[in-house]
Amino acid sequence: VGSPVVLGIESSCDETGAGLVRDGKLLGHAVASSMDEHARFGGVVPEIAARAHVHAAAPVVHAALADAGLTMADIGAVAVTTGPGLSGALQVGVAAAKGFAYSLGVPLYGVHHLAGHVAADTLEHGPLPDPCMVLIISGGHTSLLLVRDLARDPIVHLGDTLDDAAGECFDKVARVFGLPYPGGPAVDRAAREGDARAVAFPRPLTGPRDDPYAFSFSGLKTAAARWAEQHRQAGRELPVADGAASLQEAVADVLTRKAVAACVEHGVGTLVVVGGVAANSRVRSLAEERCAARGIALRVPPLRLCTDNGAMIAAVGDLLVRAGAEPAPLDVSIDPSAPL
Ligand code: KG4
Ligand code: ZN
């Protein structure tokens, strides 16, 4: 008897994801996004996200099953994101997961969203070495984590952002630069035509007295807004490509510098970069350069596994099942502000 097929459901923000994993292998997945509905508000509107999950939950699960060539009857366990995230959005995914688990008579597992981001990489590159350093960079998080056995050991939280997340910084500055939402991919695209040395944006918290693993991006956002404002007041056209390239360079520099320093300091030989901002081309190239210089193995999952998805939640569920972890009760609650 092999291990069961695990259905993973993710609904913590604006993506409704479903994925199917067995024995560390991705069998199929599907994602629906309400991103377009939030675009004109410049950010995710919780109420709109929650309603979109209601519409997408069942179709996304069916699409994932179709992608895997499986049926409902093949599902042997259900895993769902219980937090952190938007409470209304989480409620919908958890309610759906309980419905599937109860009607199929299979165990239910609650999963921490960030553990999901970490596990995403295992679907592409196999089991994670113990220990490894994980840099999680998304619209909601910027954290450096020391990870041992995901299913058994608590994740050690080395540092976090003191204010905005890296993705939030990209999203907010993109807005000031007149680029479309979501800002991260737009900044990345605009930066291709720009000069990364054009504007000397600050590298926050990189001084000798600063916490080596803490991040701060709100000052960078303010510096970018001030730079744009100076151009407007002078009646000059904004060199958006140069601004985007310089901002991206500053963010990528700080993120990779601290992540590599954390590996060196803790004697860890593998750095895993996950979350939506891991899709950034400069973050990737600078991480490659700096890890290579220090003999650190770098693992970055493919783009489709970097952003929020259900497969990463199924991946954690699969690890929990195989580790013999206790399932969650069917009345498990959401934990919107779940600590690490
Ligand atoms: O992991 P994710 O899908 O959702 C969570 O926040 O949990 O990450 C979304 C974030 C957004 O802020 C988006 O702008 C950013 O990832 N992002 C990027 C890129 N692609 C997505 N940021 C920079 N460069 C990109 N290519
Ligand atoms: Zn995420």
Automatic annotation (TrEMBL):
UniProt: Fe cation binding residues: 113, 117, 308
Cofactor note: Binds 1 Fe(2+) ion per subunit.
Compartments (UniProt record): Cytoplasm
Cofactor entry: Fe(2+)
Keyword Transmembrane recorded: no
EC number(s) on file: 2.3.1.234
Source organism, top-level taxon: Bacteria
Pfam family, one: TsaD
Summary of the function given for this chain in its UniProt record: Required for the formation of a threonylcarbamoyl group on adenosine at position 37 (t(6)A37) in tRNAs that read codons beginning with adenine. Is involved in the transfer of the threonylcarbamoyl moiety of threonylcarbamoyl-AMP (TC-AMP) to the N6 group of A37, together with TsaE and TsaB. TsaD likely plays a direct catalytic role in this reaction.
Family named by the database record: Belongs to the KAE1 / TsaD family.
Name recorded for this polypeptide: tRNA N6-adenosine threonylcarbamoyltransferase
Organism from which the protein derives: Streptomyces stramineus
